[in-house]
Amino acid sequence: RTVERKVDLTHTVFIVSSKSGTTLEPNILMDYFWDRVEKEKKGSAASRFIAITDPGSQLERIAKERHFRHVFQGNPAIGGRYSVLSVFGLVPAAISGVDAARFLESAARMLRSCDRHVPPEQNPGVLLGAALGTLAKSGRDKVTIIASPQIADFGAWLEQLLAESTGKQGKGLIPVDAEPLGSPSSYGHDRVFAYLRLDGEFDAHQDDAVTALEKAGQPVLRFAIADPNDTGQEFFRWEMATAIAGAVIGINPFNQPDVEASKVKTRALMKDGAKAATEAALFSDNGIKLYAGAQTSGMLKTRGNSLSGVLKQFFAATRPGDYCALLAYLNPTSNVGHALQQIRSKIRNSKKIATCAEIGPRFLHSTGQAYKGGPNTGVFLQITSDYEPDLPVPGQSYSFGKVIEATARGDFEVLNERGRRALHVHLAGDGASGLTKLEQAISDALA
Q1: β-sheet bridge partners, residue 422
Q2: What's the pLDDT tens digit per position in 39-50?
C-alpha cells in the first residue's frame, strides 16, 4: 500500500531482479503488482515488467510465459553481491538516469589500477583488502561506513558485500552502516572507519567528526569521490578488497553457507501455513511481549521485574568488542527509522559497542550471513509487530503478514540454534506506539 500511494501504475515499470529466480520476496511482490496492474486495467501488465535473472531460472520461464517487456540475462559465474557492475546493477542504474558510460569508465579506471600486473603496494584493491583483513585479525573487525549524504546508500550495498562475503567460520568483517556519528569517547577499540567523501557535496559535521576520530587514534580510511557517477570505481575497489580481506582472514569470500539456513526454516513454516507462534512469552507488559531461546532465557530473571529491568539484564551481557543489531520487521516509515537511530545511539553511547539497524526481511540476504556465521560477538534484538490490516498474496493461501511472520520466526530460530544472544520483542498493533515504549524502556535500562 505504501508503494501504491507513491506511484502511478499507469506510468510505472517494474524490474523483477533475482539471480536464482526462486527468492520468495521479489516473486510475491511481482505477483502482487502484476495482479494490481491487470485489475486496474491500466494497459497490458506485460509491457510494464522487466526481468533480470540468470539463464534458465524460474523467473526467466515466468517472464517468457507472461511476455515481459524484456528479459536481461545475468552471468551465472558472478555472485549476487558482486553483480553491481553487471546487468543486475547497470540496467536499473541506466533506467533511473545514471550516466552509464561515465559510471563504467570510472569502474574501468579502477580495474586497470587493480590489474594483476600492478605491484601490491600500488594496487588500491590489494591495499584496502590487506588493511581490512589485518585490522580484523587485530580485533578491529567493525567496518563503520560514513558516506556523504548524496551517496549515503552506498553503505547499504557495501554492508551486504562485506557481511555475506566474510562472515563465516566464526570470522568476518561486521559492517556498521548509517550509525549516527558520536564523539570519540562513544567508541571502543574494535573499529575501522571508512569515509566516502563526495567532493563539493560533503557534510561539515561528518568532516569534523571524522577528523576528531583520527586525532583520537581511530583508524580512518578516506575515499575522495569527484562525482556520484564516479562511484563505479568504488564498487570495483571494494569488491577487489573484499576478496583480498577474505584471503587474509582465512575464509572463502565467494560462498554464503549460512544464508540458506533461515530460508529453509521459513519455507518449512510457510508449508505449515505460517501458523502463529504458540510458545508462551517470557515476559509481557503493556502490549509488549518478550521471547527468547534457552540460552538467553537462562540469563534473564523476569519474575517481579519490569520491561526495563529485563532489558537491563539483557544488555548487561554485552562485552567490549561486541555489537548490537536491531532486527526490525517493521514498516520502514520515517518515524520507525528515527526511533531505531535513537535506540542505537543510546546503546552505543552507554555500552561503547557498535550498533546496526536492519529492516527485515531485506537484511537476511545481506548481513544475515555474518550474524549467523561470523564471530559470536553479536547481541540481537528482533522487533516485530502485528500485521493488520494485512494483504493477501495473489494466487496463494497466505498473506504478506504471514510471510513476514514466518521469516522472522525462522530467522530467530536459527540465531538461537547458533548460540547467539537474541531477544524477540513483539509490539502489539502496528508497532508505532510500542516502539516508543520500547525506546523509553531501553533508555531506562541503560541509565
Answers
A1: 380
A2: 877 668 999 999
> Which helix (H) or strand (E) element contains residue 277?
none
Angle between helices 432-446 and 334-351 (to 10 degrees): 10
Cell readout for 181 is: 556519528
pLDDT tens string 121-161: 999 999 999 999 999 999 999 999 999 999 999 999 999 99
Cell of residue 420, nine digits: 547467539
Residue type, 439: E
Q: Which of 129, 140, 158 is nearest to 247 (CA)?
A: 129
- Strand-pairing partners, residue 325, are 356, 380
d(CA 291, CA 320): 25
Placement of cell 559497542 in the chain: 353
The DSSP bridge partners found for residue 192 are 143
d(CA 125, CA 90): 21
Residues 6 or more apart from 400 whose CB is under 8 A from it?
28, 32, 387, 390, 391, 392, 393
Peptide bond preceding 361 in cis form (omega within 30 of 0): yes
Q: What is the pTM of this model?
A: 0.96
Measured over the CA atoms of residue 108, residue 111, residue 116 and residue 122, the dihedral's sign is positive
**Tens of pLDDT along 277-324?**
557 899 999 999 999 999 899 999 998 899 999 999 999 999 999 999
Query: Regarding beta strands 283-285 and 288-292, do their DSSP bridges make them parallel or antiparallel, or are they unpaired?
Result: antiparallel
**C-alpha span between 309 and 297 (Å, rounded):** 14
Structure confidence by residue, pLDDT tens digits, 195-222: 999 999 889 999 999 999 999 999 999 9
CA distance 359 to 361: 6
**Amino acid 350: pLDDT:** 98
Q: Please state, in angstroms and rounded to a whole number, the distance separating the CA atoms of residues 364 and 164.
A: 10
